[in-house]
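Exercise 7. Given the encoded structure of a 265-residue chain, write a plausible sequence.
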């Protein structure tokens, strides 16, 4: 019995050592319960104080969900396109060819666009069949929302890829979870005014907040707000430039350390 307990203790200790060496694993332990609690808490607060819009709840929720998927799938597809090169230990081989980092980024953007269109398109079609709710009722503003969210996803994808270049595959969980930091403060299912005052100021620093506020303007007031559109475009320009700068800096550092040839499963 004592020997069995020692072996069990040894296996538990192995995982404790992994947590001690990886802040990402420690963060992930509390991450998902916290995100779900915060998000659904604000949703409940919004609907409790706005019973007059009950008839429009399905359209608001389904449109918010599908536009959120554009952001999430765009970022995830971008990051996975990069991670797949690491899994196959192909990154070093790519960069002994004439391929430039900017060309790699352009290819990941194209892959992200294709995968997002397929994934979200299938979900949008099913929403029409099952719930008679069509995101295409947004009309031409849908193009603006779609484009802005995709660009935000690419900016986050660049930053995640940079962190993987810097910290290795120990940081790959960020590809799945980091985007959800934005969910509670982007106003996906409720207006930004539901958030506490200090959190509203943080929220307005994100292009996603402008997009989802714009979506509600179209659905509830049948009005497209150009100020929100240009706010999202301006912030996206800043975040894409920041993401590209971080990625190129991480790439140069990885190349100098010889890490491009060492990364992989």
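Solution.
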């Amino acid at each position: 019995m004592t020997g069995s307990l020692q072996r069990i203790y040894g296996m538990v200790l192995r995982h404790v050592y992994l947590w001690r060496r990886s802040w990402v694993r420690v963060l992930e332990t509390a991450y998902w319960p916290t995100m779900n609690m915060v998000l659904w808490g604000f949703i409940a607060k919004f609907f409790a104080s706005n019973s007059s819009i009950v008839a429009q709840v399905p359209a608001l929720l389904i449109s918010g969900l599908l536009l959120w998927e554009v952001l999430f799938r765009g970022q995830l597809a971008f990051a996975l396109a990069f991670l797949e090169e690491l899994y196959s230990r192909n990154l070093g081989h790519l960069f002994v060819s004439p391929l430039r980092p900017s060309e790699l980024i352009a290819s990941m953007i194209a892959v992200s666009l294709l995968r997002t269109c397929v994934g979200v398109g299938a979900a949008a079609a099913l929403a029409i069949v099952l719930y008679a709710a069509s995101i295409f009722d947004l009309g031409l503003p849908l193009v603006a929302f779609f484009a802005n969210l995709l660009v935000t996803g690419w900016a986050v994808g660049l930053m995640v890829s940079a962190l993987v270049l810097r910290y290795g595959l120990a940081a790959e969980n960020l590809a799945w979870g980091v985007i959800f930091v934005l969910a509670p403060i982007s106003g996906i299912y409720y207006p930004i005014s539901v958030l506490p005052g200090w959190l509203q100021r943080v929220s307005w620093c994100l292009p996603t907040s402008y997009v989802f506020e714009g979506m509600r303007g179209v659905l509830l007031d049948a009005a497209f707000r150009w100020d929100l559109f240009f706010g999202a475009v301006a912030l996206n320009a800043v975040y894409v430039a920041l993401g590209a700068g971080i990625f190129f800096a991480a790439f140069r550092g990885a190349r100098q350390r010889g890490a491009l040839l060492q990364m992989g499963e």
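Remark. The chain has a mean pLDDT of 84. Students should compare their own answers with the one above.
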